[in-house]
Design brief:
There is one protein chain. By secondary structure, the chain is of the alpha+beta class. The protein has 3 domains: 58 residues, no CATH class; 150 residues, Immunoglobulin-like (Sandwich), CATH 2.60.40.420; 137 residues, Sandwich (Immunoglobulin-like), CATH 2.60.40. The protein is built from 7 helices and 20 strands. The protein has a 6-stranded mixed β-sheet with strand order 11-9-13-18-15-16, with no helix packed on it. The protein has a 5-stranded mixed β-sheet with strand order 6-4-1-2-10. It has a 5-stranded mixed β-sheet with strand order 12-20-19-14-17, with no helix packed on it. The longest helix has 26 residues. About 3% of the residues have low confidence. It binds copper (II) ion. The site of copper (II) ion (CU) has 7 residues, from loops.
């Protein structure tokens, strides 16, 4: 995992040594001294160094007080974007052996809690653990994810309107950072964040009443909020309406998220968080369920009615959620549900805001592969896609090929596997 980091450091080290050796040789060389060690040249160089210094000083920007509310940011006063202080880098490497290694960071699309059948309110309790782990964004591209329960997104939670919900949040002893939880389904300061700030090894609890149905995002809201969310700390909680949701055959849990890493997309080895890209809103990777898909995680039988709970952990992009090869017959726009809440019918693409969610439903009429995307399609190149397989017999009434006797060879350009 660190091969590439070692090569990187070595190349700087070897390069630096050779430059020093060259400088040493030149300074000792008589001709060099004769040419360059003259007052005019020395003064020019000093003036240049002075100009660089004052130029850099005059470029001081980003007053922290308008960057965000002062109580919500952790960067040093007057500092730039929240870069890692050098001390944190050494702290990271000292703690690194303790971080759990996770084979597959992606939450299981099928891990949706079963529908609630009871008709009375109860007190429901959830235990979540904030854990900082190491896992892969794609094969051989490693990242220090911050998680709830060692997965991205965190576990999907399900309660019923009227329930009292107890959240116990533990911060794993191996963590380097404070974490908390803000549930958008909570009415109260910080959505619970103010009551759940936990340092490594600590547990805090709070309770709240689920008064409004909907599908809600939860996330870590520790300063810097956007840094925690863009390390993977988000998930969904469904507050079912009292009467429940209509029965479907299959339910899936999907969340779009963003990862900001230094260097170009595809850089191998351990990749480091890039705060500048975060502030600029230019993620290196856009993912469904935490990482680039390894294998199809959703299976549907032809004719089944499917419901997907789709969230957007953000923190910068609005998702234009679409499934290539399907039409949503029903959408709960922005996750709105319950009495007097209107459903959308027959939708091709639905908007899911950063920190928002939607529910989409469809019947899989035709067998084959479905592709979930953010239809801002350049994001597919950054990983924003996932596949679902529909199994079963062909359905020629809905979809079939028309065999033709004429050949199109030589007329249509042949597409290669990249689709160019
Ligand atoms: Cu956090």
């Amino acid at each position: 995992m660190y091969d590439y980091t070692i090569y990187y450091v070595l190349s700087w080290f070897v390069g630096g040594i050779s430059l020093l050796a060259l400088a040493f040789f030149l300074v000792r060389n008589v001709t060099f001294k004769e040419i360059f060690l003259r007052p005019a040249i020395i003064i020019s160089v000093l003036v240049l160094i002075g100009a660089i210094f004052f130029g850099t000083y005059s470029y001081k920007t980003y007053a922290p007080d308008f960057a965000m509310p002062p109580f919500m940011h952790t960067m040093a006063p007057g500092g730039l974007a929240p870069y890692l202080p050098l001390a944190n880098i050494s702290k990271f490497f000292a703690s690194e052996p303790n971080f759990p290694r996770i084979e597959d960071i992606g939450a299981d699309y099928n891990a949706v809690p079963p529908p609630i059948t009871r008709t009375t309110s109860e007190t429901v309790e959830f235990n979540l653990t904030a854990t900082e782990v190491i896992s892969e964004i794609a094969p051989n591209i490693y990242f220090n994810f911050w998680t709830y329960n060692k997965q991205v997104p965190g576990p999907m939670l399900r309660v019923r309107t009227g329930d009292t919900v107890v959240i116990n949040l533990t911060n794993d002893i191996t963590s380097l950072h404070t974490h908390n939880i803000d549930l958008h389904s909570v009415n109260g300061p910080g959505g619970g964040a103010t009551l759940t700030n936990v340092v490594p090894g600590e547990t805090k609890s709070f309770k709240w009443k689920a008064v409004q149905p909907g599908i809600y995002v939860y996330h870590c809201a520790t300063a810097n909020v956007s840094t925690h969310s863009s390390h993977g700390q988000y998930g969904l909680i469904l507050v079912e309406p009292e009467e429940g949701l209509p029965k479907v055959d299959k339910e899936f849990y999907v969340m779009q998220g963003e990862l900001y890493t230094q260097g170009d997309i595809g850089r191998q080895g351990m990749t480091v968080f890039d705060a500048k890209k975060l502030i600029d809103g230019n993620p290196t990777y856009v993912t469904f369920n935490g990482r680039i898909e390894k294998e199809t995680g959703m299976e549907i039988n032809r004719g089944e009615r499917v419901r997907m709970y789709v969230g957007n952990g953000g923190v910068n992009l609005v998702s234009s959620f679409h499934i290539i090869g399907e039409i949503f017959d029903t959408v709960y726009p922005e996750g709105a549900m319950g009495k007097n809440s209107a459903l959308f019918k027959n939708v091709q693409t639905t908007i899911i805001p950063a920190g928002g969610a939607a529910v989409v439903e469809f019947v899989a009429e035709v067998p084959g592969k479905l592709v979930l995307v953010d239809h801002a399609l350049a994001r597919m190149n950054k990983g924003a896609w996932a596949t679902a397989i529909v199994k079963g017999d062909e359905n020629p009434e809905i979809f079939s090929e028309i065999k033709s006797n004429t050949t199109t060879a030589g007329i249509m350009p042949t597409m290669n596997h990249h689709g160019y």
